[in-house]
Amino acid sequence: MNLLRNIPPIHELLNDNRIVVEIKQHNISYEEAKQSLQDSVQSVRDEILNDEFSNFSVDDLFDLIIEKTIKQIEQHKIHNLQPVINGTGTILHTNLGRARLAPQAIDHVVNSASYYSTLEYDITTGKRGSRHDLVEQYITSLTGAESAIVVNNNAAAVYMVLSSFAKNYEAIVSRGELVEIGGSFRVSSIMEESGTTLKEIGTTNKTHLFDYEQAIHNETKMIMKVHTSNFYMSGFTSSVDRKDLANLAHRHNLIYYEDLGSGLLYDLSGQGITDEPIVKDVINKGVDLVSFSVDKLLGGPQAGVIAGKKKYIDTLKKHQLARVLRVDKMTYAALEETLRLTLTNQVEQIPTLRDILKDSNTVQDEVMVFLEELRDFEQLIVEPCEMKSKVGGGTLPEVELDSFGIKVKCQVQTAEQLSQQLRTCSIPIIVRVENDSVMIDFRTLERHEQDEIRKALQELNNRLK
User: For 405, phi and psi rounded to 5 degrees?
Assistant: First the structure.
C-alpha cells in the first residue's frame, strides 16, 4: 500500500504542462480538467488496491495519471453520434443508421436548419399553414393515394392507424404475418398497446379467404395485412390476394389496412432484383390505408408514411397522436428532396437505390483501381475477393447482390484484432470477419471512403512492423 502514498496531489497534476496544453487545445475549464484528474486518480487508486501495479515510482504514477486524464478529456470531446465507414456491404445497415441521404437532401436539410422556414407558414396568404401539406402532393403523385400523412417511423404509423380506427375493437391478421420488426418490437405488441384486440387467423404458412370471412363479427373494425418484408418463407405456403381482402373488407364496411414496411416506390423488378410490391400497385388494388418506412427502400430519413383514402387521412390529421408523432423541419426537408428525386426519376442520386442497382462489374473495377494505388505491405496481405452484399434494414431478405471487395489477412494478428484496430481509426471502419479474414465490401463505399481505407491500411501496416 506504499504506492498509495506516491500518488501526487491534484494541484501538482493540474499544473503539469501537458494538462495545461489539453485545457487550451480543447477549450475546457480548470474545473473540468480537475474532475478528470480526480477520476484518473481514483482509477489508479483502485488498480493499486487490486495489486495491478508493482514497483511504480512517483514519476511513473504521475505519468500514468496524466496519460489517463488526457485520454479521458479527448474521449469526452468525441461525439457519441459519429460518422463511420460501412465496409460490410449491407446497404441499409440498421445499426449504422440505415439510409444515407442524397447530397441534394443534405443541402436542403442544412438550408432548412440554417434559416427560419415555412414549416407551418403559408407564403401566399401570410397566415398559418400546415406541415402536413409540405410533402403530401409528392406522396400522392408517387403512390396514387388520395391523401397522406408523415409520422416519425413506420411503427408509429401502425400504432396511429390502429389507435384511430380499431381501438377497443378487433383487427384480423394472419398468423403468418405477425412479424417481429427488430429490437424485439412485434406487430402483436404494437396492436396491444394501441388498444386493438388482435384476431389471429390461419396458420403460420397458410391463410385462406374463408379464414378472414369466418372471423368477421360485430366487434371487427379492420382487416390488416402485414407484408413480411423482413423474412422470406417458401415451400408449402399461401396467402390471400390484397384485392380479394379489400373487396371482403368493403362488403362488411371494414377498413382494409396494409403495413408494407419497406415502402418501395421505384420498380426494381426490371433489374431482376426483387418482386417486392410497389406502393402504387398496392393502392390500386383498393387498399384503404397503407403505411411504410421512409429510411428503407425509399432512401430517405427516419420517418413513416400513411397514405390512402382522404376521409381516413383527414381523421388521422385531426387525431391527438398527429402532434405526438409528427416529424420536424429537418426530416421534412430530407424527405421532400428524396421524394422529388424519385418523382423526377433521378433515383441514381439516392445512395440506397444507387448502391442496390450498382453492377458488380462496376464494383470490381473500383476494387482494381484501389489495389493499383495500394503500396506493397510487409505485414498485411490484401487480395481482391468476390462477395455477396445484402440490402439489409429488414428488407429483401431473400436478395443477395453479387459484389466485390478486398480480403485482408495478417500473420501476427487475428482478423478480430485487425477489425478492432480499424474501428479505432479517426473515422471508424466497420468490416465483416469471415474465415479469419477481414472482408471489406466496396458496394457500400464512396470514393473518398476508399481513400480513407487505403490510408488506414497503410498506417496499420506501419504499426505492425
Answer: -165, -155
pLDDT in tens, 59-68: 888 888 998 8
Read off φ and ψ for residue 441, nearest 5 degrees.
Answer: -85, 125
Task: Decide: 184 and 155 in contact? Cβ < 8 Å.
Answer: no
Distance (Å, whole) CA 262 – CA 88: 21
Q: Give the integer Cα–Cα distance in Å for 350 and 106.
A: 11
Residues 6+ apart with CB under 8 A from 295: 92, 98, 99, 153, 301, 302, 303, 393
Pick the CATH number of 85-93+356-463 from 1.10.357.140, 3.90.1150.180, 3.40.630.30, 3.10.20.70: 3.90.1150.180
Residue 184, number of CB atoms within 10 A of its CB: 7
Q: Does residue 442 contact residue 404 with C-beta atoms inside 8 Å?
A: yes
Q: Is 27 left (phi over 0), alpha (psi -120 to 50) or beta?
A: left
Pairing mode of beta strands 432-434, 147-151: unpaired
Nearest to 189 by CA among 284, 181, 56: 181
**Phi and psi based region of residue 59 (left: phi greater than 0; alpha: psi -120 to 50; beta: remaining):** alpha
- pLDDT exceeds cutoff 90 at 86: yes
- Which residues belong to CATH 3.90.1150.180 in the chain? 85-93+356-463
Q: How far apart are CA 232 and CA 238, in angstroms?
A: 13
264-292 pLDDT, tens digit each:
898 887 777 777 789 999 999 999 999 99
CATH number, domain 103-345: 3.40.640.10
> Which amino acid does the sequence have at 70?
I
3-class secondary structure, 85: strand
Cα(371)–Cα(88) distance, integer angstroms: 18
Q: Where in the chain is the domain with CATH 3.40.640.10?
A: 103-345
C-alpha cell at 184: 424485439
**pLDDT of amino acid 182:** 53
pLDDT, residue 235, reads 46
**Single-letter code of the amino acid located at 58:** V
Q: Is 113 helix (H, G, I), strand (E, B) or coil?
A: helix
In the prediction, which pLDDT does 179 show?
Answer: 64
Sorted by sequence, the CB contacts under 8 Å of residue 334 that are 6+ apart come out as 101, 105, 106, 108, 109, 300, 301
Closest CA to 456 of 411, 95, 464: 464
